[in-house]
Amino acid sequence: MLNNVHLSKLEIKKRLLEKLNTISGNQAEQESQIMISYSAKKENYLDVNNGEIDKELINKILNERIKGKPLAKIINEKGFWKNIFYTDDYTLDPRADSEILVEHILNDCTQIKNKKKFNFLDLCCGTGCLGISIIDELENSFCDFIDISKKALNACKKNIIKFEKQKNSKLFHSDLFENYPINRLKNIDVIVCNPPYIPTSNYLSLNNETLYDPRISLDGGELGLDYYIKIIDYLINVKFKGSLYFEIDPIISENMYKYLLEKGIKIVYKKVDYLSLDRLIKITLPNNN
Q: What contacts 284, CB < 8 A, 6 or more positions away?
């Protein structure tokens, strides 16, 4: 732990690394910098001066981290895409794996920039990191955010306000599309969704840090496909004309592809994440083919 002896920023980081290396592995360097930056109320470690570091606060954070609690859940912040988002115990922490959805939607929407407006939906939005990151890149975009959890929507609202996206967004408390107006859906160009997709039998075998995320954001039913099936069946029924970008996981990909084939759903493309694992599928529904 850090004592009251004068320590430079580099000395503090060195001491943190001694503790974090066994807890955080290859994330230890990044976490040490985040702790120091957070204690100094700075977003960038390089901007922190020695006198701005709150060692008492770092000690409190480190105590929680040693107990196994994820850093993001301790400081209620997590970096994603180009921003630092608010997160809490009621939301799935943003993950770098999910940035691939933002990347490919932006790539596909290059031609949209000259259109009057790009309307899209962030379904199962949680912190809103996907939708907000896209809004931030596309000035003429508007996003509807849907989540079943009021507390998750409160976190999303905090991020919308933090990044001043109130004019580009609207929140809906809804179990998928249950309370979402069909007339709004007709104007949606794209749906981006990171639904719960862990098979129930795999849930309790997740690593301890992942289990700090709410179960409702992780458990996808027996095969991990419950939410995909509900979403797709509803959208086929209402003849949705847009594109869907789903986050997936290798643990469900085989069953997912089989389901899509049986439904006659076109996979526009599949993409892998930074670890070369199945992470994204873009699909269009039968009425679009």
A: 243, 244, 265, 266, 268
The pair of structure tokens assigned to 270 is: 């599949």
Distance CA 153, CA 76 (A): 15
The beta strand positions in the chain, using DSSP E, are 77-80, 83-86, 118-123, 141-147, 169-173, 190-193, 243-247, 266-272, 278-284
DSSP 277: -
- Domain at 81-87+90-288, CATH class: alpha beta
Percentage, residues of the chain above pLDDT 70: 96
Beta strands, E only, 182-272: 190-193, 243-247, 266-272
d(CA 80, CA 151): 20
3-class state of residue 36 by DSSP: helix
Candidates 201, 152, 202, 142; CA nearest to 175 is 152
Domain(s) labelled CATH 3.40.50.150 in the chain stretch across 81-87+90-288
Q: How confident is the model at residue 4 (pLDDT cuts 50, 70, 90)?
A: low
Placement of tokens 């006198």 in the chain: 51
267-281 exposure pattern, b = at least 16 Cβ within 10 A, e = fewer? eeeeeebeeeebbbb
Task: Dump pLDDT digits (tens) for 59-88.
Answer: 999 999 999 999 999 999 999 999 999 999
Give Cβ neighbours of residue 59 (< 8 Å, ≥ 6 apart): 1, 2
Q: Compute the Cα dihedral for 185, 191, 193, 199 and give only its sign.
A: positive
**CB distance 149 to 214 below 8 Å:** yes
